[in-house]
Design goal:
The chain is α+β, with helices and mostly antiparallel strands. The protein is built from one helix and three strands; from the N terminus they run βββα. β1 and β2 form a beta hairpin. It is elongated and about 60 Å long. The mean pLDDT is 88.
């Protein structure tokens, strides 16, 4: 029989994430605000339609939102790395990014 590592009861947390999309053709902007209860993080991203392409607003929404979510993921990973360092964790090599960060 497997026993839990601690006697602490499981905890449930709720984080609030708001995603705002703004379209000013040909640009779509996504803004994400994540409230963890302890911290608030914010990320932004954009998508731009080629003027020769057919206007399909959903595609711009998906691209901008996806990019903003990826940016939020990077912020969370950076925050976790900082927290681990504060706790005295030894430094480990960070994995290579899947793609280069946008400047």
């Amino acid at each position: 029989m497997t026993r839990p590592l601690s006697n602490r009861p499981p905890s449930v947390k709720e984080w609030r994430l708001n995603l705002y999309l703004s379209e000013h053709d040909p640009d779509t902007t996504a803004r994400i605000i994540l409230d963890t209860g302890d911290n608030v993080l914010e990320s932004h991203a954009e998508a731009r339609r080629n003027p020769y392409d057919t206007a399909v607003p959903d595609i711009g929404d998906e691209l901008a939102a996806g990019r903003a979510l990826i940016a939020m993921g990077r912020l969370l990973l950076r925050a976790a790395a900082g927290d681990m360092k504060e706790m005295g964790a030894t430094e480990t090599e960070t994995p290579a990014p899947l793609w280069p960060a946008q400047g």
